[in-house]
Amino acid sequence: MSATIKPFTDEFEEYGRDESRASGEASSISFPTTEDEVRAILEKLHAERVPVTVQGARTGLAAGAVPHGGHILNTSRMNRYLGLRRDEQGQFLLRVEPGVCSRSCASS
Ligand SMILES: Cc1cc2nc3c(=O)[nH]c(=O)nc-3n(C[C@H](O)[C@H](O)[C@H](O)COP(=O)(O)OP(=O)(O)OC[C@H]3O[C@@H](n4cnc5c(N)ncnc54)[C@H](O)[C@@H]3O)c2cc1C
Questions:
Q1: pLDDT, tens digit (0-9, with 9 covering 90-100), for 78-107
Q2: Which entry of 11, 23, 42, 100 is 20 to 30 Å from 94 by CA?
Q3: In the chain, what are the domains?
Q4: Is the CB of 60 under 6 A from ligand 1?
Q5: CA 26 – CA 11 distance, rounded (Å)
Q6: Of 24, 71, 66, which Cα lies nearest the Cα of 46?
Q7: Are 77 and 2 in contact (CB under 8 A)?
Q8: Alpha-carbon distance 86 to 97, whole Å?
Q9: Closest-CA residue to 99 (of 70, 83, 75, 71)
Q10: Whose CA is nearest to atom 52 of ligand 1?
């Protein structure tokens, strides 16, 4: 199941850094695909007082997605389009999950 909290082994090494090229350490990582999974992961980590670093596509340049211990919650697999609607001004509004990529992050 994708919501599993996994040990931060060598196979996840790339998730220790972002586009800033700074790198850090973590003890565990998860790739939730739904809000319920995010909630379950955070409840568990909160109870254990584990610090959490949230990651999107790791294209940030300020090292905000670089972990400093604790857990990495990576949202890149929350990539569904949830709905399209039009407001009173005729503008289209698209609802997406946080892992949906624009063209620039999809090609990185
Ligand atoms: C080639 C290139 C071009 C770029 N061009 C631009 C540009 O034109 N304009 C621009 O503004 N930026 C640009 N950037 C910077 C970067 O793409 C943006 O900052 C981008 O929005 C980061 O999104 P991300 O999902 O990769 O976030 P990440 O790098 O994964 O995270 C950035 C921060 O947001 C937090 N975070 C991520 N997801 C969540 C979430 N779901 N909930 C809460 N916190 C979260 C992280 O903890 C971290 O602190 C560029 C970067 C590159 C490499």
A1: 999 999 999 999 999 999 999 998 776 665
A2: 42
A3: 6-78 (3.30.43.10)
A4: yes
A5: 13
A6: 71
A7: yes
A8: 18
A9: 75
A10: 59
Cβ(67) – ligand 1 distance below 6 Å: no
Q: What is the pTM of this model?
A: 0.91
27 lines ligand 1 (CB under 6 A): no
- Beta carbons of 6 and 29 less than 8 angstroms apart: yes
Rounded to the nearest 5°, which phi and psi values hold at 7? -65, 145
The response to whether residue 73 sits with its C-beta less than 6 Å from ligand 1 reads no
Atom of ligand 1 nearest to the CA of 98: 41
**Cα–Cα distance, 92 to 64 (Å, whole number):** 31
Q: Which residues does residue 71 pair with via DSSP β-bridges, in sequence order?
A: 28, 52
Residue 19 alpha carbon, nearest atom of ligand 1: 53
Q: What are the tokens at 18? A: 């972002």
